[in-house]
């Protein structure tokens, strides 16, 4: 066995804690899944436990898992589903890769564990399935359309009508109609391609659309000032965009910052254009609707 310095031992204890923590997380996920997913997750859990035991031979101590991290990932799983949770975990593991490589120069087993993580877990992850990932295109379609269309409509109507309740009801009715239209379009599109899950795709698209509509228009029923209501609506839109782009960037392993800026820019750009149109319409036609 290699000579372990105090600095190396600190790293090994941290790796040990990481491995046992992930063992419990994967074990929890396996308990919630069935069939092939359950089998895969149990294999990964045992793999992490094996790595923990290897590091224990070097440190000579038992290490408690990070229970706070375990609780966090349990919550993430319940909200975002299986594949997102695992992809997020994998991102955290990638941050340790460089330290593993440095350690491998002194302890050969570190390279073996790192290679095992690469080959074994990537192979298992490719077999995982999650309905939310399968229909992510439908969800993104509903959210993105609702964000761009509704923020644009709200911006234009806010200045043109100057009446929060009227704007709120107009946007709500428009949004409900648009969500149904989007759902039907998604259904027909999938149906024409022979997709057996056309109904589910339509459900995800329509649901994502209507939830976004409700989030954007709620301020108009609570605040009398249309510009303040619009500001809150745009803030809510920015939060939705942040959550949506973060989710898709984790699942697709893309650049979150670039995706966020691009989608936020498009949404605010449309809002600015329609706001200007609303101002022109109000000025030209002398519209002044009071509460």
Low-pLDDT segments, ≥5 res: none
Rg of Cα set:
25 Å
Q: Counting H and I runs of at least 4 residues, what is the number of helices?
A: 12
Helix content: over 70%
How is the quaternary structure best described?
single chain
Entry summary:
The chain is built from 12 helices and no strands.
What does this structure look like?
It contains twelve helices and no strands. The protein is mainly α. The chain folds into two domains: 6-131, Ferritin (Up-down Bundle); 135-285, no CATH class. The chain starts with 5 loop residues before the first helix and ends in a 6-residue tail after the last helix. The model has no long low-confidence stretch (mean pLDDT 82).
Write the layout of secondary structure elements.
Blueprint: H1 6-32, H2 35-59, H3 67-80, H4 82-94, H5 97-104, H6 108-125, H7 131-134, H8 136-161, H9 164-192, H10 198-217, H11 226-252, H12 256-285
Which labels suit this protein?
single chain, 291 residues, mainly alpha, Ferritin, 2 domains, 12 helices, 83% helix
């Amino acid at each position: 066995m290699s000579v372990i310095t105090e600095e190396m031992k600190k790293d090994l204890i941290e790796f040990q804690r990481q491995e046992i923590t992930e063992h419990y997380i994967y074990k929890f996920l396996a308990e919630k899944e069935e069939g092939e997913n359950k089998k895969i997750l149990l294999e990964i859990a045992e793999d992490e436990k094996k790595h923990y035991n290897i590091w224990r031979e070097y440190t000579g101590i038992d290490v408690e898992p990070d229970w706070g991290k375990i609780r966090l990932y349990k919550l993430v799983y319940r909200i975002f589903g299986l594949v997102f949770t695992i992809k997020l975990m994998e991102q955290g593991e990638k941050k340790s890769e460089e330290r593993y490589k440095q350690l491998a120069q002194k302890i050969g087993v570190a390279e073996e564990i790192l290679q095992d993580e690469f080959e074994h877990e990537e192979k298992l992850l490719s077999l995982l399935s999650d309905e939310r990932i399968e229909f992510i295109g439908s969800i993104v379609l509903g959210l993105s359309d609702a964000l761009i269309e509704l923020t644009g409509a709200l911006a234009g109507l806010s200045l043109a009508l100057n009446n929060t309740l009227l704007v709120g009801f107009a946007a709500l009715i428009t949004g409900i109609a648009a969500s149904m239209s989007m759902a039907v379009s998604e259904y027909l599109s999938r149906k024409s391609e022979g997709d057996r899950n056309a109904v589910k795709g339509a459900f995800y698209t329509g649901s994502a659309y209507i939830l976004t509509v409700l989030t954007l228009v709620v301020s108009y029923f609570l605040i009398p000032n249309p510009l303040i209501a619009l500001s809150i609506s745009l803030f809510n839109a920015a939060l939705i965009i942040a959550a949506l782009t973060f989710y898709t960037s984790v699942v697709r392993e893309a650049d979150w910052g670039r995706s966020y800026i691009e989608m936020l820019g498009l949404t605010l750009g449309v809002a600015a254009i329609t706001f200007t149109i609303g101002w022109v319409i109000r000025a030209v036609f002398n519209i002044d609707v009071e509460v």
